[in-house]
Design a protein that fits this description.
alpha/beta; about 450 residues; binds NADP nicotinamide-adenine-dinucleotide phosphate; 14 helices; 6-stranded parallel sheet; about 35% helix; 12-stranded mixed sheet
């Protein structure tokens, strides 16, 4: 039998994910040692309150409230506390002490990633974060390693399970947003305060992480354009369905070429229409998926559980094994690649397609006036569907126009919508949604 060197693992947090990580580390010790080439000894678990009930049965003697001492006696530190402080201070302490760090903390990485990666590089340690985006789905390592020789053009991600559950419920069962959110809360998919999910904040953090990684550029969270799903109505979802689209909250990371060699990066989160034949349209319930378009590899899709204690623990343990292998081999950690340093583009710089729904007065000449407004802003109309749904006997019932555009810039689109709203022939601008994935 091989005698392995023992690596000391310090775990910070024993909540949904941490308790599962601890149990798997203890239960699969032998197997993990074979894979890592080192014994993985869980030496302690830092928590806020030692007497809290845990999701899995953990040895009492491993629990401690002294996170600092635990870190200073660990070779590998797993941060699963969440939040910014004290997680940030503790990760900095761990790196400074020479430990490799594994974290699932997207909020921390999206706001303090550069500081943490810089320190890791300085001290020759490694920071692993597979579980920070897409839970169990392997997406960080594929972008980091497998696609390191390729050039990523665009990422479209469904990276928030709560909002996907809500939008899917509206699409499949005709529930309103409020009804779907209530069900998501009852089933444990949504937090008591759902703002981080429905407001798109969680997805924006993940977009910042994915864009930084995919485009070898620091993409600050503040530069990620964000719209949540709170204004999405059942009528919009049903109209989209009738037109062959599905509404999804997308995290979009895109390399935009300007033709002069100074490319830029756009990272943005908003609800968008995608064609029902697009692979992302088949992502139902609380599942996540990340669709990557690469220059040489073509289209790739990564799909699975975006959250859940045990599922996320799988990604964390993969990182533990990688960290242990690195310890066994020795040498400094691999620095995060930020060499491209592309400029970060504002939302006004992007072009995409739009679907605009209007109610207009039903009289002759209306279509010509609407077409004129689009022409004035160089927005080309691709499709136009008109329907009249007045009350029987009503003299001039309003007509509904659903207009699909060719690619147009955000600025031209905003100017068009402003003119439509001010036009005397338009009663209401019912909805403006971007169309992606065509
Ligand atoms: P959680 O259930 O809230 O657990 C947090 C744990 O950290 C608890 O055990 C808590 O101790 C401990 N803790 C918090 N503050 C502490 C402090 N100041 N000192 C010591 N211990 C402290 O969180 P979670 O759902 O497991 O999530 C952990 C991380 O994984 C987060 O960054 C989250 O974003 C990320 N993540 C979670 C999921 C998921 O499905 N849950 C998926 C992907 C990524 P007590 O138990 O004593 O209060």
């Amino acid at each position: 039998m091989i005698e392995y060197r023992n690596l000391r693992i310090g775990l910070l947090g024993a909540g949904n994910v941490g308790s599962q990580v601890a149990s798997l580390l203890l239960e699969h010790q032998t197997e993990l040692a074979e894979r890592a080439g080192a014994g993985l000894e869980l030496v302690g678990i830092a928590v806020r309150n030692e007497s809290n009930t845990r999701r899995t049965e953990l040895p009492r003697e491993l629990l401690t409230t002294d996170a600092e001492s635990l870190i200073l006696s660990s070779d590998i530190v797993i941060e699963l506390m969440g939040g910014i402080e004290p997680a940030r201070e503790l990760v900095l302490l761990a790196l400074n002490s020479g430990a490799d760090v594994i974290t699932a903390n997207k909020a921390l990485l999206a706001t303090h990633g550069p500081e943490l990666f810089e320190l890791a590089e300085q001290v020759g340690a490694q920071l692993y974060y597979e579980a920070a985006v897409g839970g169990a789905i392997p997406i960080i390592r594929p972008l980091h390693d497998s696609l390191a020789g390729d050039r990523v053009k665009r990422i479209l991600g469904i990276v928030n399970g709560t909002t996907n559950f809500i939008l899917d419920r509206m699409y499949t069962s005709g529930a309103t947003l409020e009804q779907a959110l209530k069900l998501a809360t009852e089933l444990g998919y949504a937090e008591a305060d759902p703002t981080a999910d429905v407001g798109g904040f969680d997805a924006a953090q993940k977009a910042a992480i994915l864009a930084s990684l995919a485009f070898h550029t620091v993409v600050p969270l503040e530069s990620v354009y964000r719209e949540g799903i709170t204004n999405i109505t059942l009528a919009q979802v049903e109209a989209a369905k009738a037109a062959g689209y599905v509404v999804k909250l997308l995290a979009i990371c895109e390399r935009i070429e300007d033709g002069t060699g100074s490319d830029g990066v756009s990272a943005r989160v908003y609800p968008a229409l995608i064609p029902e034949k697009h692979p992302l349209a088949a992502v139902h319930g609380a599942k996540n998926a990340v669709f990557v378009e690469a220059e040489a590899a073509g289209d790739l899709m990564f799909y699975g559980a975006g959250a859940g204690g045990i599922q996320t623990a799988s990604a964390v343990l993969g990182d533990v094994v990688s960290a242990a292998r690195r310890h066994v081999i020795g040498g400094p950690g691999i620095a995060e690649s930020r060499h491209a340093n592309l400029q970060i583009l504002p939302i006004s710089a992007i072009t995409t397609r739009y679907q605009i729904t209007l109610t207009v007065v039903d009289r002759s000449g209306v279509l010509a006036e609407i077409a004129e407004i689009f022409r004035n802003h160089n927005v080309s109309v691709e499709t136009l569907v008109q329907s009249v749904e007045g009350v029987t006997g009503e003299a001039n019932p309003p007509a509904t126009l659903v207009i699909g555009t060719h690619e147009a810039s955000e600025s031209s689109l905003s100017a068009t919508v402003a003119d439509l709203a001010a036009s005397t022939v338009v009663e209401t601008v019912v909805s403006v949604l971007r169309v992606e994935g065509l």
